[in-house]
Write a structure and sequence with these properties.
Radius of gyration: 19 Å
Structural class: alpha/beta
Order of helices and strands: EHEHEHEHEHHEHHEHEHHEHHE
Oligomer: single chain
Number of helices: 13
Distance between the termini: 44 Å
Length: 309
């Protein structure tokens, strides 16, 4: 059944940048944002086995969670439409008078939007909340916020190709929940280093979260702990915290669009790529390193630039 959710090959961009050249560091960008018009980036990989599991078990509904600009809500709604399965999005916060572009799209794809207070949303992972969902909607396949479960991690283990594992010393990407990073760490070769650029302020806790994801996947804490030195979380480039940005970041986004026709979003990918290039300029990345930067999508969120400052 997996062939119905096949992942096409994607192009790579060579990022020529004067600071990279001065340090003889090669930066290639794997354009996961080009996987699919709507089900792309790391979200496509996180959803792959969740959707297949739902279909295999005969579930007619997927329920998941997110905010008004959630990339995961956007992609899940599109996947539901494409694979013929009903989707319900539990949305953080009271129903707004005017929907975000993300929520408008999700509704157009057929997703049922259910708004809950931020207070109640905090209980979304409790058994009581799940029981309420079953009372309301019957049987369903539950996908956690961001798609960060066993099936999502297994999907992310397929992001790196055999050549990626052979040709690069460092893999870098944005980091939100840590599930994508866990999949990368589990699938990378033992000589590769993985850098996750936190989109969150105070993201130091993400190192432990990644290890928890790995432990959950392997069902072995001692084995999971052996991966602790293979990755690190970079926390200096959050630009004020999750969902925040400034003029410097927006100028960076504009410059890369003009110089390399490379679109970036202000919540995840721009912060991560800015951080990577800054570390190269500061010579914190070893000379002659071969770096693969993963473009994890999320470009639908750039619509918020017209409504959020």
């Amino acid at each position: 059944m997996s062939e119905i959710f096949s992942m096409p090959s994607v192009p790579y961009n060579r990022l020529t940048h004067q600071t990279c050249a001065s340090n003889d560091v090669i930066v290639d960008i794997k354009r996961l944002d080009l996987l699919h018009p709507h089900i792309n980036g790391n979200k496509g990989y996180k959803l792959k086995y969740n959707v297949l599991k739902a279909l295999e078990e005969g579930h007619k509904t997927i329920i998941t969670f997110g905010g008004a600009w959630s990339n995961h809500i956007y992609a899940t709604a599109a996947a539901g439409r494409e694979f013929g399965i009903k989707t319900i999005g539990i949305i953080r916060g009271e129903e707004p008078e005017n929907y975000s572009a993300t929520l408008q799209f999700a509704r157009e794809q057929g997703m049922q939007l259910v708004f809950v207070s931020r207070f109640d949303y905090e209980d979304k992972n409790t058994e009581e909340f799940k029981a309420w969902l079953h009372d309301q909607y019957g049987a369903f396949h539950l996908v956690p916020e961001g798609g960060s479960n066993y099936y999502g991690i297994n999907g992310c283990m397929e992001i790196l190709s055999a050549s990626d594992k052979l040709n690069y010393d460092i893999i870098a990407c944005a980091c939100g929940t840590g599930a994508t990073l866990a999949g990368l760490v589990l699938s990378a070769n033992t000589q590769q280093k993985i850098i996750g650029f936190s989109a969150l302020k105070g993201g130091e806790f993400l190192h432990a979260e990644v290890l928890k994801h790995i432990e959950y996947t392997l069902m072995n804490k001692e084995l999971a702990d052996e991966f602790a030195s293979q990755f690190n979380i970079e926390t200096r480039y959050h630009f004020g915290g999750y969902g925040k940005w400034n003029d410097e970041l927006l100028e960076f986004i504009q410059s890369l669009r003009q110089s390399h026709a490379l679109p970036l979003d202000q919540v995840y990918t721009a912060k991560a790529l800015y951080g990577l290039l800054d570390r190269i300029e500061k010579k914190e990345i070893a000379t002659a390193s071969r770096v693969l930067f993963l473009h994890t999508g999320g470009l639908q969120g750039t619509a918020s630039l017209t409504t959020v400052s």
